[in-house]
Amino acid sequence: MDRSPQAVDRSPQAAGFPAAVLFDHDGTLVDSEPQWAVAKRAVAARYGVAWETEDDLLTLGKTVPTSAALMVERGAAGTVEGITAELGREVADALTGEVPFLPGMRELLDELAAAGIPGAVVTNALTVVAEGTASGAPEVLRVVVSQEDVEHPKPHPEPYLLAARRLGVDPARCVAIEDSQTGAASAAAAGMPVVVVPGELAVAPAPGLVLVDSHTDVTLAFLRSLGT
Q1: Is residue 189 within 8 Å of 157, Cβ to Cβ?
Q2: Cα(153)–Cα(67) distance, rounded to whole angstroms?
Q3: What structural domains and CATH numbers belong to the chain?
Q4: Strands, DSSP E only, in 114-193?
Q5: Roughly how many angstroms between the first and final C-alpha of the chain, as a whole number?
Q6: Mean pLDDT, the chain, integer
Q7: Mean pLDDT score, 124-148
Q8: pTM, two decimal places
Q9: Among this protein's residues, is 24 annotated catalytic?
């Protein structure tokens, strides 16, 4: 499924959709991928192991413990849990202050707030990082689901299903916004349409995915047009 961002349906059916909007965090809602890259290099260097751009791409969209485990495999003298916590602290400290929302995302959150449509942050990152972002738009971002909340992180559908359940909405009445193959697969498996914004790596077209050219294409009118 691939629609032009200009296609808008103003019918009553479309106006009742979406019931909620579920946002991935890094690279989708906020410009935090650079902070994660810096944090991984800093922590890897602290433990005397290598971390390159290829490693950033390899771990894109995956859980923070995945990166920590890779460092341990390379000889870092620490635990996956301990290195995960270090990575989270590094990024949380870097994001202290004004939330670095990506272009168009602050405006979309304002539209959702005015329409009374709730949202959630659904991420493979850590709660401490995602909650800082959610605090920047508490009237919309009412729920945070991180990899710490689920048994099966993305690409499994559990994170998105849990977020919909916590919001009290039918997953099929939600829209997910993602930027990675891992996240898009998770949301699609949860049975919700997925808007895919540009990310570090291209996401392959697939049923249920709506690929757009820019974050700023994602407006409330556009999301409503997906409900027809």
Answers
A1: yes
A2: 14
A3: 12-32+99-225 (3.40.50.1000), 33-94 (1.10.150)
A4: 119-122, 141-145, 174-178
A5: 12
A6: 90
A7: 92
A8: 0.81
A9: yes
